[in-house]
Automatic annotation (TrEMBL):
Molecular-function GO terms, alphabetical: carbohydrate binding
Keyword annotations of the record: Lectin
Protein name: Concanavalin A-like lectin/glucanase
Record region (Disordered): 1-21
Length: 521
């Protein structure tokens, strides 16, 4: 995947173009002009025996074949000199190899020298030169065919097909040095061929100890990009992108496509809901583009293989229903079957509704000063949030200092003796007078929670809150002669102590009550 995100320019996502899988050299001109080596394309090879001696060209980020920019050449002022001495492909007995150059011809480039490595030895010219004659690619091979009697021979590969102006075209030249066969391709189509079957032709090679540089863009007007040299014949019929393949044995066609995956993103609050997806895409005919989404309240990493992806078929309806705090999107691009064009995503955004925590309950207060041995009763106003009223609840916290709570009360015994959430809906309660009373038995019930009594099919929060183990919960009983401070908080039905702790409100201001103590002599 390639992402263009230069300031002031249009951002987009698209699949990466095809690049050679093996080779001696690859220039995509993403690097510095002084050394236009590989950057974003990520080709794993870099020749140690081919190096940049000097380089002069203009970077062009308005048109490119690979990556995000190409090299613009303006006559003799712009050239790249490469040292190739010591490289076996430019030695006296090279293995078969290929040179490929994507070219975008300018207005003045009809007569140009694109590539040149020639030297004069005793008045005789040796080497190769790729030129344009009236826009027709022509390769001159000077005295590189070796004869049995010590002589050398030359030949020319001349294409009858003109290069189009201001459009990218690929010239590939295959040097089959073992069979003395040399082929020129334009956009994957053979346009010129030379084969020497003479019995006295014994080899192909450059002069020994030749230190002449390989000059790219020697006298050229236009753009070059993705210049590469590699052993062997051209890897495939050249296409800019992946093309459909067919296996004659299995009778199965396949086309893998490319994937772009976002980092794991995060919303402010847990239990967010996806409401809408918006994108702006360019999708040429016969290409495919699919969008996938996954999210969870629990944090996950890119490499997570257990969290499933959901395909988004409609951008406004039938969206994934799961709640999330962490989410990730994935795009799948598939080129057209010929590998000439791909979809492009110019903009992509996700709209979601966040589940904000509830407000602090208001007017938390004691009902009245209780009589000795009577329950301690509290009143407060009902929260307005539906997620608190339907499935949520309240927690009453208590401690010996206003800002240090040592225990909490979150469950009660209902009329049937079962544990239930504190909802404030007791006898004599109302919307502005939610009511709950605490006795010593209430404290004991909250300190010791029997296993499994609070499981729920719809929501886990209460079960999670109190744990399903028989461990003693943190808490203490009321003691006479001490002042206790009380605070209240509310929580949504989505509260989960493992992945949704933010669904609880802050604590209310503290109120206090002092338990009397009988002091004897």
């Amino acid at each position: 995947m390639v992402q263009n995100s230069e300031p002031g320019k249009k951002n987009f996502l698209k699949p990466k173009e095809n690049t050679p899988k093996h080779g001696e050299l690859f220039f995509d001109f993403e690097g510095e002009v002084s050394e236009p080596q590989i950057t974003e394309s990520g080709i794993p090879y870099k020749s140690k025996s081919i190096s940049v001696v000097s380089s002069s060209y203009l970077t062009d980020d308005q048109t490119y074949f690979f990556g995000k920019r190409s090299a613009y050449f303006s006559g003799r002022r712009n050239q790249i000199h490469l040292s190739v001495s010591g490289n076996s492909l430019f030695g006296t007995h090279p293995d078969p190899f290929t040179i490929s150059i994507p070219i975008r011809l300018g207005e003045q480039g009809a007569g140009s020298v694109i590539l040149d490595r020639t030297v004069f030895v005793k008045g005789k010219k040796y080497g190769i030169s790729l030129e344009l004659n009236e826009s027709k690619p022509t390769l001159y091979v000077n005295n590189l065919l070796q004869k049995s009697d010590g002589r050398t021979a030359s030949f020319i590969l001349e294409s009858p097909v003109k290069l189009k102006r201001k459009t990218w075209e690929v010239i590939s030249i295959y040097f089959d040095t073992l069979n003395h066969k040399y082929i020129m391709y334009q956009n994957g189509i053979e346009t010129a061929e030379y084969e020497n079957k003479q019995a006295d032709t014994i080899g192909f090679g450059f002069p020994e100890n030749d230190s002449t540089p390989l000059v790219l863009g020697k006298s050229f007007y236009g753009n070059l990009d993705g210049f590469h040299i590699h052993k062997g014949e051209p890897e495939v019929e050249y296409t800019k992108f992946e093309k459909v393949r067919y296996d004659d044995e299995t009778k199965i066609g396949f086309m893998e496509g490319n994937t772009a995956i976002s980092p794991v993103l995060e919303t402010k609050y847990s239990n967010s809901s996806l409401t809408r997806v918006q994108w702006n895409v360019e999708q040429p005919k016969d290409t495919m583009l699919e969008l996938y989404f996954r999210g969870s309240n629990q944090k996950f990493v890119d490499s997570n293989i257990h969290l499933p992806w959901t395909r988004i078929r409609s951008l406004e309806s039938d969206l994934p229903k799961n709640k999330f705090k962490y989410y990730q999107w994935k795009l799948w691009f598939r080129p057209d079957p010929m590998g000439n064009s791909v979809p492009k995503v110019l903009a992509l955004s996700f709209e979601y509704t966040e589940q904000t925590p509830p407000d602090v309950p208001t007017r938390f207060r004691l009902e009245s000063n209780p009589e000795p041995g009577k329950p301690l009763c509290f009143l407060w106003n009902s929260n307005h949030e539906k997620e608190v009223q339907n499935g949520g609840g309240y927690l009453i916290h208590y401690g010996l200092l206003p800002n240090r709570m040592l225990g909490s009360v979150f469950v009660k015994k209902d009329k049937n003796g079962n544990l239930a959430k504190i909802d404030g809906n007791e006898d004599e309660s109302g919307f502005q007078n939610k009511r709950f009373c605490i006795t010593e038995e209430t404290l004991v019930n909250n300190i010791y929670i029997p296993e499994g009594e609070l499981n729920s099919e719809d929501f886990r929060p209460l079960a999670d809150q109190v744990d399903v183990s028989r461990k003693e919960k943190r808490g203490l009983l009321f003691q006479p002669g001490l002042t206790y401070y009380f605070r209240i908080s509310s929580y949504n039905r989505y509260l989960n102590e493992w992945d949704s702790k933010d669904q609880r409100s802050p604590l209310s201001p503290a109120i206090s009550f002092s338990f009397p103590k009988e002091v004897s002599n």
